[in-house]
Design brief:
Elements: H1 7-20, E1 24-27, H2 32-45, E2 49-50, E3 60-62, E4 76-80, H3 83-86, E5 91-94, H4 95-106, E6 114-122, E7 131-137, H5 140-149, E8 151-152, H6 154-160, E9 167-172, E10 182-186, E11 191-195, H7 200-203, H8 206-222, E12 225-227, E13 229-235, E14 241-247, H9 254-258, H10 264-267, E15 272-277, E16 281-285, E17 291-294, E18 299-303, H11 313-318, E19 324-326, E20 329-331, E21 336-338, E22 350-351, E23 357-358, E24 372-376, E25 393-401, E26 411-413, H12 417-425, E27 428-430, E28 442-444, H13 457-471, E29 477-481, H14 500-511, E30 518-519, E31 524-525, H15 540-547, H16 551-568, H17 574-587
The structure holds guanosine-5'-triphosphate, sulfopyruvate and manganese (II) ion (MN).
The site of guanosine-5'-triphosphate has 22 residues, from helix 9 and strand 18.
Length: 588
Amino acid sequence: MINTKNKFLLDWIDESAKLTQPDSIVWIDGSKKQLDELRAVACKTGEMIKLNQKKLPGCYLHRTAVNDVARVEGRTFICTEKQESAGPTNNWLQKDEAYKTLRKIYKGSMKGRVMYVIPYSMGPIGSKFSKIGIELTDSIYVVLNMAIMTRVGQKVLDTLGESNDFVRGLHSKADLDEEKRYICHFPEDNTIMSVNSGYGGNVLLGKKCFALRIASYLGKQEKWMAEHMLILGIEDPKGNVSYIAAAFPSACGKTNLAMLIPPEIYASKGYKVWTVGDDIAWLRIGPDGRLWAVNPEAGFFGVAPGTNMKSNPNALKASMKNSIFTNVAYDIDHNTVWWEGLNNDPPKHALNWKGEPWDPASGEKGAHPNSRFTAPAKNCPCISSEFENPDGVPISAIVFGGRRAKTAPLVYQARNWEHGVFVGSIMASETTAAASGAVGVVRRDPMAMLPFCGYHMGDYFAHWLEMGKLLGDKAPKIFNVNWFRTDENGKFIWPGFGDNLRVLLWILARCNGSIDAVETPIGLEPKPEDINIDGLDISRSTLNDLLSVDKACWLEDVAGIKEFYKKIGDKLPAALRSELKTLEQNLK
Ligand code: GTP
Ligand code: SPV
Ligand code: MN
């Protein structure tokens, strides 16, 4: 039995129950017994399908409503007293107005349902990095996902004690009405309200809503950072591990990079890669003055399509027990799951992600492009021994990157922290299926945080600059990568995946000062011979192309950056405006 005397918590639950009117309230203790009971209920109602327990022990399939398959950025709001606080890149609602609108929608929305109370910790319980949230939800799917993605149960309440310092998250599926779908954040009140969705990032409130949007706002006040970053450790043959944090937009390769398998030429020498996180990093300045990172999550909510034994065996293995699959194809004969890119052997008798009979020969996709697996981090064969370390890991390099068919070279280094913040601020990437809307359109996505920054983007840039001042010469070095350049046929030129280690090793060599670089108009690039291409199907001249800086392309980009900076307005730090001037002059 769960137990708390926290009056703030009990009052808020009371108030929320009066509003949403559930039949009953159940506290989630995170025990196997309780979760098993919920899984049984979900299977009975059809909310989940129990998969082949020999092949996929503890695994389940869930299908969302067909109109509810990705984050909805157009329906995601930062709700504050004044619009200025949300800034020009966020949808804004005046907070009192938002509460009023939302209360109408939530009224009675849990009638006939159970309200589950999920006490969870983002970050190892008790770590100085960690923060507590409580999510109220009428969805068993949400409960079971949160139990994988976060640390849940009584210990969280014990840590919270009678404090009011927790993030309130109220989620109701209501009737999944798109028109009345709201994902609302109240950073000034530590509150999240999500209604009329049942999908991932819209409803697992610990993830994007808390660990990025609310936490980025808290980080600004408390001088730390919440970022859309993977964290990985690279172990060299002597056993030294260096850590890299990398920010790529949604579905641009964080999970894959975090779990990469070193190519044979490196594996045979003893190089290893360890995963600390695949989506979110909380970064703080440690007692030694360096930047330290924890992954606030306890699981992976990873993109399924494209995941296979060659591209990402670690993710695949992680998802083969005690995992939940969302919106993948269903193999009727084997009671298992399938997605595009898993193998070349689609199931003979199958249902697609919508649950309809599906013929692989039809040309239609079996799995939704944004279908996902939810897997416990501890299942991952390459999970870092530091994953639970309450002090986190020290970061040597920060890497930005995106999907750019042209423009951005394979890798370049920023000349210093300020230039690095500039490099992050001008990131652009082709949109993906992770958010609803058009796919493949290039948009500015600074630090991969466009959809996740909980306050004014200009203030966010200023915060980055301030963190650099605090870090001084202990600041991580900053880089930019692009695995996604294409040739004239639209094919990716760089092999990517495990071979990305070749680029990461150049980055680490730059961090420890063991290698030179070449000055270019945009920053420091490798001497082509310093990227090891042994064993790759790539010529030196192709590598030169990958590293080339097309001035015309870049000047076009400068025009785009100017437009974006104009949108940021007066709050754009002068240092960034001056970096832009330098870039333009260098190119001319
Ligand atoms: P979110 O969970 O949405 O934040 O995404 P993510 O950044 O973790 O992306 P993920 O690693 O799941 O990759 C998304 C897609 O990019 C998958 O279809 C991958 O197969 C593909 N991908 C990942 N790494 C590479 C790479 O190095 N090269 C190429 N060409 N594709 C890649
Ligand atoms: C992303 O879109 O960046 C994700 C998936 O990691 S979601 O949790 O849906 O936001
Ligand atoms: Mn993400």
